[in-house]
Amino acid sequence: MDNNFETNFSLFENFGHSLNSTAYRLQLISNQDIKDAYKLARQAGLTMTARGAGRSYNDASLNGGGIVMDFSAMNRILSWNKDTGRAICEPGVTLEQLWQCTLLDGWWPPVVSGTMKTTLGGCLAANIHGKNNYRLGPIGEHVLEFNALLPSGVALTCSPKRNSDLFYGMISGLGMLGIFTSMTLQMKRIYSGRLEVKAWPTPNLQNHLDSLLENAPEYDYIVGWMDTTVRGRNLGRGQIHAARYLASGEDPDSARFLQLKNQTLPARVFGIIPKSILHYFMRPFVNNLGWSLINSMKYFTSLQRHTFLQSHASFHFLLDYIPDWERSYGPDGLIQYQSFLPSENAESAWREMLQLSHRSGVPAFLGVTKRHRPDKFLLTHAVDGFSLALDFKVTRGNRAKLARLLETFDRIVLQAGGRFYFAKNSETTRASTRQFLGTQTLSKYQRLKKRCDPEQLLESDLYRRVFK
Ligand SMILES: Cc1cc2nc3c(=O)[nH]c(=O)nc-3n(C[C@H](O)[C@H](O)[C@H](O)COP(=O)(O)OP(=O)(O)OC[C@H]3O[C@@H](n4cnc5c(N)ncnc54)[C@H](O)[C@@H]3O)c2cc1C
User: Fold this and answer.
1) Considering the entire predicted model, what is its pTM?
2) Which residue of 23, 107, 134, 204 has the lowest C-beta tally within 10 Å?
């Protein structure tokens, strides 16, 4: 391509290394760069997709044969006000940068993903949820306003009151309406760097879901781990972790734990093995038998009900504890299937799905449950109920079988009135999307798309899969 950018044709992957496509990479760091990139795409007749940290489990930030705009270096925190808890950030700022800037002043991001490596641009485009979704909603509910540059050439500011259709459309809109150039977030006041966490076992699926439902109102966060490999009457057994903030004066060590050095995850396991190479040791266990053993061991060591204090970083970002853990799934990687179901239908639908996965010989290795409530963003994935995220190993041998299994899962979820999340699932079809979003929502999204991006410059592999 003939232009002022340094471009190279690169191979991009999803987080789980199970999908990839090649595209021109443009590293953008300013609004002018974005304008130039739009111009370049128009001249070259190419489509373009934004990419933050590339932490989506699916094809949301892939754009085979087109341009990928890399925002990871447009990452300045433009302003931080420790009195109001308001932060103005560029889109490439990661959750890690954000909490590390605000913690010492006693503020924490109100909504975080299970990894701190995600960027705010990516978090808004997917409208991420945390372990407190049932209380505080998705991240979009804590965005006071954002600035965006549309492919139509328009620069605008959106808030719940100003350009509100675009506020609710672009947040959750998967980067297909325009590009976030900065955002103002309201952080959450905290009085300690630690949370009080309670953990208890749940002997089966029904008990697990009842436990989430009944206990959620008493805590600020709740999350479940599910043994997805066990069968029979213990199907869906697991463990719940529920946490609450400590009030002012409650933690005698509060100042110490607001310091970054007391939040950092340790670099070595048992003080010896560098965490960066741990995924190589994990690889031999990442198979049906290995995970069945790991899950059983985890369940039997979690039988004791207990309460402990844990740093915010350790509670929220457990998955960052082992860097590159997804590599342990081997050369064909992993995919995650997350379904959101109304409380009343969740047990029967997930029972059927877990049993089907066992019968077909493709069990999920890991299951994580959360409690949710609906929100008013356009492409919302939340329901009044629960979500279950299932991690599947992909191999050359099981890929087709896995795809058929997930197709059946989609049917079960749709019949039960459920929804899907566009940052996770890689199998959702156009027909499933139409069914769970409804034609009214889809038409509204397409009308916004026509208005903001009349030449259809913004397209991703995901967009072509589910919307085109
Ligand atoms: C280990 C792990 C745990 C996770 N836990 C959770 C969780 O608890 N809850 C949850 O909700 N999600 C979770 N996720 C998913 C993750 O939060 C989302 O996929 C998020 O979008 C990734 O952010 P990113 O910066 O990597 O974005 P990318 O994956 O790079 O992009 C995601 C989307 O954002 C768009 N985008 C990026 N930058 C911009 C911009 N400047 N303007 C407009 N659009 C843009 C892209 O085009 C794409 O559509 C998890 C992912 C991982 C790997």
Assistant:
1) 0.96
2) 204
